[in-house]
Amino acid sequence: MTTSPNCKTVLVTGATGFIGSHTVVELLEAGYRVRMVDNLCNSEASVLERIERIAHEHLTHDPKRLGFWPVDVRDSQALEALLASEPIDGVIHFAGLKAVGESFSQAPNYWDNNVGGTMALTQAMAKAHVKRLVFSSSATVYGQAASLPVSEDAPTQVTNPYGRTKLVCEQFLTDWCHASGDGQVALLRYFNPVGAHPSALIGEAPRGVPNNLMPFVTQVAAGIRPALSIFGRDYPTRDGTCIRDYIHVSDLARGHVATMAAMLGLGPHAVTSPDIEPSTQNGPIQTLSGLTVMNFGTGQGVSVQELVDTFERVTGQRVPTLDAPRRQGDVAELYANPQRAHTLLNWRATQTLESMCRDAWAWQSSLP
Ligand code: NAD
Ligand code: UD1
Hints:
- By secondary structure, the protein is of the alpha/beta class.
- It has helices at residues 18-29, 46-54, 56-59, 76-85, 100-105, 107-127, 161-180, 213-221, 249-264, 304-315, 339-345, 353-366, and strands at 9-13, 33-37, 66-69, 90-93, 132-138, 184-190, 192-194, 228-231, 243-244, 246-248, 290-296, 302-303, 321-324.
- It starts with 8 loop residues before the first strand and ends with a helix.
């Protein structure tokens, strides 16, 4: 597909990371021009070349549709130079640190990176008159919700420094949006992103011991680790293990494209083309304005044991488990009410737990 003259340009921070890389692919497939920013503190530069391989048919005629800047978002000067170099229609801000456990011992670093980075980015955006921002927040801001499925209006309650940085960024961006008058901000609260691109060229690549369930499961299945510790079997849930809302990272990525399209006021057909997947042609049904908070989940609660059982069934791999004590700070059960995103964006997650497990395993199997 060639770039149309009115093709929109999106700056993506944290673009070589897990969710960022999948979103860049979906943006390219939907017809956008993309400017990637990442300081590579938790990802590899080789992700860029993998994105190019996946999206090669969209880049062949116009390689300039994709650009990469190895920049830290706290580097205001570099960001200002980038934003001044060409018109940017909107920013999707993934860059940040995300390990809950580490956020206790490295709290100042988390505040500097997550909050300082967000403030530096918005200052650079203001100078360049860029007013559309999509922000990666987390379901962690709900703590243990009093009623499930949890809606966006539920009270927030955070229990760790990582969660506090996300909540403070939400509050800052709410004020930033209102102060700017005509700014557009979307605060997206992700539930549990898992899976990988079906090409198995990009996926989640945790450094060291994985903190999250799915990468731990795939590493046990691959024989890298002997067994999965199940953190608690005594929760008040149907099988005693914790319940979460797992969402395929490609569904999540498409949700970001739908959010950006809705901010830009693009109708369902504004970025369509015969070589775009029909799923990405389901454009928004209304234009977003001002501040929008949305849950990005499937609405389905899945227990730790159910995830392990599904993984074993789909992949044919065994995942030995050990019963372990509860992990500090875990909530028993959390899953989304995703209705608002469906109403505003005409988007909903479509991929099954089976495909999340299959794609996560294909990605793990592709690694050296
Ligand atoms: P990730 O670590 O794979 O990606 C984040 C990227 O940001 C990395 O490539 C890292 O190198 C980059 N980065 C970090 N600090 C930076 C800085 N100061 N300047 C430039 N680049 C920087 O994480 P992810 O899973 O893709 O998460 C993306 C965002 O979504 C994060 O903000 C995270 O907090 C949020 N989030 C993730 C999850 C999840 O389960 N993965 C859940 C909820 C929210
Ligand atoms: C965690 C973070 C959350 C963050 C999200 C994505 C906490 C309290 N919450 O969510 O803030 O946004 O990751 O980075 O850390 N489990 C095991 N064994 C394991 C790993 C996990 O049993 O080895 C269980 C956990 O107890 C939990 C479930 O699996 O019940 C999912 O865990 P995880 O993938 O870490 O996600 P969350 O805890 O939901």
